[in-house]
């Protein structure tokens, strides 16, 4: 829509030149257009105001949310650096200026005690773990210009968003999603999370053959595979097994581990902003990291509801209809935050079709 307005502006200049040459008055045309864009600007401003000033609703009315989003789609989106920087300042405290988003040999040297995020447990870094860690932050090239964070919501099906997603400079994905829907979800992947539960369900925790797993990871090319290895006790062995499998087979993908101190502080930060859940979803962890690592962030595939913008049924994921484990995440409250951040110019939230 921003382009629509811009090109309309260009058209006005062109028309005005033409009309001037022809000695015809174009004044009324310009006035009508100015009045229209003035009205649109006011309406969009009011809508954004409505969406950001609201208290977080207890019960989400999906129909109303959908109406607001449809209206919002006719409004241009502009980044607001001042507000974005306020978010970044708070996020920077959790990540120590991104130096401890993930465990590295710098922030977890031999002898360092890793304190788990959730479990009341510590582990000392010894040689074998140390060797698995990257020498330094794998995000040395940040900030990336334009990032896409891709959730796995069913709303992505038939969205046609694949090309837009692949045009981003850095693409984040959640939980090893299938990529054979590239028209809708794209295929570029720079970082993908892997929950321990999917490694258990699909690959028996890598206790048996690891070849299938390694083969399947090839679709992610040279992506980083990010795991919360030191959040809960059971996750550590599985995450290390993933790292060893990739290493042993000479895979192009590398496993990295969230720094548990980052996740702990990030959890408190979002709790202070009203996200009350046992844990943040991996989607929100990635969105938070992207806000620090990228100049601009666009979200696709975030829509935790079973009806779409026009009331049509949508699947839980673009690739299946398995609902998330109830009571762990606060997906709808996370979504309302994304919508508010969109309205404030912090990130761009795409829901529905990409044109
Ligand atoms: C903003 O909210 C008010 C009160 O709910 C409503 O009357 C108005 O139509 C809303 N504005 C827009 C642009 O949606
Ligand atoms: C933050 O990172 C710097 C190095 O970049 C390090 O010297 C400092 O100790 C870190 N602070 C914390 C609280 O980890
Ligand atoms: C993607 O692969 C899955 C599993 O192999 C299959 O069921 C599905 O139909 C495929 N989807 C598309 C759009 O190719």
UniProtKB/TrEMBL annotation:
Residues 1-26 form the signal peptide. Pfam families: Glyco_transf_29 (PF00777). Keywords: Disulfide bond, Glycoprotein, Glycosyltransferase, Golgi apparatus, Membrane, Signal, Signal-anchor, Transferase, Transmembrane, Transmembrane helix. InterPro entries: Glyco_trans_29, Glycosyltr_29_Sialyltrsf, GT29-like_sf, Sialyl_trans. It is a single-pass type II membrane protein. One of its GO terms (biological process) is oligosaccharide metabolic process. One of its GO terms (molecular function) is alpha-N-acetylneuraminate alpha-2,8-sialyltransferase activity. Disulfide bonds join 147-294. One of its GO terms (cellular component) is Golgi membrane. It comes from the Eukaryota. It is found in: Golgi apparatus membrane. Belongs to the glycosyltransferase 29 family. This is ST8 alpha-N-acetyl-neuraminide alpha-2,8-sialyltransferase 6.
